[in-house]
Structures are given as structure tokens and as C-alpha cells.
Amino acid sequence: MEGKRVAITGPTAGIGRATALELAVRGAHLRLLCRNREKGEALAAEIAALGAPEAVVIEMDMASLASVAEAARQLAGIDGGLEVLINNAGLINTRRRESLDGFEETLAVNHFAPFVLTGLLLPLLEDSPGARIVNVASDAHKFVRGMGFEDMQAEKNYRIFREYGRSKLANMLFTLGLVRRLGSKSPTVNCCHPGAVASSLGTQNAGFVSGIVPRLLKPFFKTPEQGARTSLFLACDPSVAGISGRYFVNSREATPKPWALDEAAAERLWDYTEECTGFRYTQ
Ligand SMILES: NC(=O)c1ccc[n+]([C@@H]2O[C@H](COP(=O)([O-])OP(=O)(O)OC[C@H]3O[C@@H](n4cnc5c(N)ncnc54)[C@H](OP(=O)(O)O)[C@@H]3O)[C@@H](O)[C@H]2O)c1
């Protein structure tokens, strides 16, 4: 990864942090897209202490599409190129919350924000031969049996695991939709499941029970470093150069549930997302 420019969302905790640190050790030039600048600066200092190339911290709150657009603008201003984008950041909420733009927050942060960010960074990726996009999805797409288009904003009924599972299914359908638009052109786009990982996921905005469950399960989960392996594989490994539109678990191609391969649902979601976000891909 020597000299490769890599943007990663959510590098300040869990899987993203482990991914960023390993990429830094491998010589990547990181663009750290962070909700919390202080945490981002602390990570950049840690990266500098490793003797790795300087990491650039860019503030981005994915609950705000204006913040996503501003972050993309700043990133493009650095030196105009990008070899890898890792859409890693994500959250799970125990109760219905809204993003700053007024959308159900799980869908907004986990799907709308990476959809817009990727679209805004696409010109940089297209200009970089062999570029790759990695979408960190989840086997949690198995919690649902489809997008549930009739209540996308969970206004009628909010269920924690349905909203999270739906947002992760959205990551997979977005991967499908983007590959359809890019065809065989660069960048490649793949998605993955990192495994069940002991991270901060589910501990923010959590009630007593949901806050304590991840802590109880921690000994049975992967470490963030183990959880980062499949993202790293998709971002770096020569064996997946030119491979696009696939789902990976434990650094191997895996078969997702059929509703994660539903082209019609992917197109319907694409239209819905463009309508909600007001952002249109030009391809
Ligand atoms: N952990 C698992 O078992 C598991 C399993 C399958 C898939 N995944 C997926 O793996 C990815 C990483 O999750 P994780 O387990 O590493 O979670 P985590 O430890 O909670 O880290 C989440 C990261 O996302 C950032 N983030 C959250 N909300 C944000 C917002 N509004 N704007 C910008 N950044 C935001 C967090 O920033 P702060 O540091 O500021 O909080 C943090 O850096 C997620 O997409 C998740 O769905 C995780």
C-alpha cells in the first residue's frame, strides 16, 4: 500500500481504527474521515509515532449530508487522487433517532451518507487506475427479508435489529447498484462482513440491557484487528484486483441471502436514496 491514498470512515473506534492502523503500517497515505476531530487527531498522532506517512484528519458527521459534502470537498482539495475508499463507519440505535437532516438515523448514517460520499469521491477514484471501494456491510442483512420499502423511515414501528439489518442490506444493494452503473470500469466495489467483533458498536445510544450485552459477549467475539482482516484483504490483496460486486466473509467470497442480490430492490433503493438525499449519480 506504499504511497496509496486511502480514505476511511469511522477510523476512530473498533474495526475502522484497526484497519487504519494496519494500513498506516503498510505505508498508505490515510485520509481519516472522523465525526470527532479530537479522536481523529489522536489517531493521526499515533500513526505519526509509528513512522507512517502523515494521516490527514477531515471532520465529517455522517448524520449530516452537508457535513459529508464538505468533507468530500476538503478531501478532493488535498491532492486530487484516491486509490481506496473504505465505507466503514456505522451505528446501531436502540431507539428511533433522526439525523440532522430528519431521516431515521441508522439508515441515514449507515447508508445515505456512504451513498453520497462515494458519489462525490467517484471522480477521484475513477482517475486512479486499479482503485477500490470497500463497503463494510454485515451478515446482519439476514435479520430482514428485504428492504421493507413500505416503512423505510421506521415511522410506524421501530425495531432495533430490523433497522440495523436493513441498513446493512442497503450497503449490499448499494454495492450491486454501483457495480451495475460502473460496469467493468474502475473502481471495483465489494462488500464484506467483518464477523462478530468486540467494538463500540451497540454501546452508544444504548439502554442498560443493550449496553451490557456486547460487554457480556466480548470474550466470544473477534478482536477489532481480526475484524479488520476482510476489509484489509479487499483494500489491498492483489488476488481481488478487478473483482467487483461480491460479498466476502473471512477474506473469502460468500453467498449472501437472495434479497441481497435482488437487482430490482437495488434499483428501487437507489431511486429512493437519490430522492431523499437529493444527490444524483451522473453515470
Ligand atoms: N462489530 C461487529 O460485530 C460488526 C459486525 C458486522 C458489521 N459491522 C460493521 O462494521 C463497521 C464498523 O463497526 P464497529 O463494530 O467498528 O463499530 P464502532 O466501534 O462503534 O465504530 C464505529 C465508527 O463509526 C463512527 N461513526 C458513528 N457514527 C458516525 C457519524 N454520525 N459520523 C461519522 N462517523 C460515525 C464512530 O465514530 P466515533 O469514534 O466518533 O464514535 C466510529 O469511528 C460498521 O459499519 C458495522 O455495521 C460490525
UniProtKB/TrEMBL annotation:
Coiled coil: none annotated. Transmembrane segments: none annotated. The keyword Transport does not apply. SUPFAM superfamilies: NAD(P)-binding Rossmann-fold domains. One of its GO terms (molecular function) is oxidoreductase activity. Belongs to the short-chain dehydrogenases/reductases (SDR) family. This is SDR family oxidoreductase.
